[in-house]
Amino acid sequence: MFGFMLFLHFVGLFAWMGGLITVIVMIGLLGKQAGSSRDANLLARKSVNIFSWLAHPGAVLVLGSGFYLLTQMGSGSKPLWLDIMEKGGGAIAILSLIVTGILGSRVQKKLKAAQGQPVKATGYLTTMSVLMVVILGVVFAVSLKV
Questions:
Q1: Residue 66, SS3?
Q2: Which residue, among 86, 77, 94, 95, has the nearest Cα to 141 in the 3D structure?
Q3: Which of 25, 77, 117, 124 is the most buried if burial means most Cβ atoms within 10 Å?
Q4: What transmembrane ranges does the database entry give (predicted)?
Q5: Which alpha helices (DSSP H) does 2-121 contain, by range?
């Protein structure tokens, strides 16, 4: 069971990061076109929607499987990398779910309301990029077993 949950943990991590990469690339490439044309507007909204459908379940899967894996390891003296994964990874996953849900709905509302006006999504892109860097930092620290 431990191996299967570890597999689910990695699948969730890949879906979560894949969703982040999708939205960063798509919204970043659309740039100033988002909001100025109907097609770019629709594509930007669909990208945010795909991100939500991919990344949010991935983050929940990482949280659930990570909780199971940590309970199987037992309590006691833990190495630093396990503390980073437990506290940092869990906090990032929960924060990511909340922040990306709120910001994603705001960007979708802006894109829906835009009629020929450019929509700035720099705050959304910056937040997604920062989350991606922080997630990769936790993955790096855990993979090195600091």
A1: helix
A2: 86
A3: 124
A4: 6-30, 50-70, 90-109, 121-144
A5: 2-30, 38-73, 80-83, 90-113
Residue with tokens 């705050």: 123
Which residues does 146 contact at the CB level (< 8 Å), separation at least 6? 80, 81, 84
Cα 117 from Cα 111, distance rounded (Å): 9
Q: What is the pLDDT of residues 78-103, one digit of tens each?
A: 788 788 788 888 888 898 889 888 88
Q: Which residue has the tokens 């960063």?
A: 24
Nearest partner of 58 among 128, 124, 7, 10, judged by Cα: 10
